[in-house]
Predict the 3D structure of the following.
Amino acid sequence: MAAARHRIEAATLTGGSVPDPPRVAWRKQTRQRVLEAARDLTCEAGWDQVSLSAVAARAEVSRPSVYKEFGNRAGLGRALVILETQQFLAGVADALYPGVPDSHACLEAAILYVLQEADNQPLIRAVITAARKGSDSLLPYLTARADPIFDAGQTLVQGWLATRYPQQRTESLQMAADVIVRMTISHLILPADEQHLTAQRLATTALKLLR
């Protein structure tokens, strides 16, 4: 205990980071390997064909270790999609903040980023492609209202809208953010036009709600 305390104190004084205890470090490594294996298998064959046994074998860990970390197959799928979509939100935030003075152009750029990035990310592209064919059980994690991904996206957009339209009521901002996120996801799955035209139209429709 004393040795551990001194390592923490030394790291603090020198500005270094404190290494994780071996058990924590091992768990983080295991989680990362499992997620990478699940991602690769999903891109290769689709989530419908991915089993926990196959993921464990690809990650070179035991099947019980996968269950212990993620609970079940649904838990693994949820963690996988959340991890992949984090960069979506980061990219959207970059497009929104500080953004350009024109709110419409700023929102249009953010929506266009999402539409284009979906084609560039192998896992998201695999999920959407499978959904267009009527399969793939990872899709609900992208579209469910009561899901952290949806909520995080809506919170991000609503916060940005509040900076651009401070005179609007919270209810109006919530509604506009909800429309933006829902319609963008809908057009990811069932594109109706060229991406730049879709982004332009969605931005126009959403901002009309605040006028």
In short: Residues 81-211 form a domain with the Tetracycline Repressor; domain 2 fold (CATH 1.10.357.10). The radius of gyration is 21 Å. The longest helix spans residues 22-45.
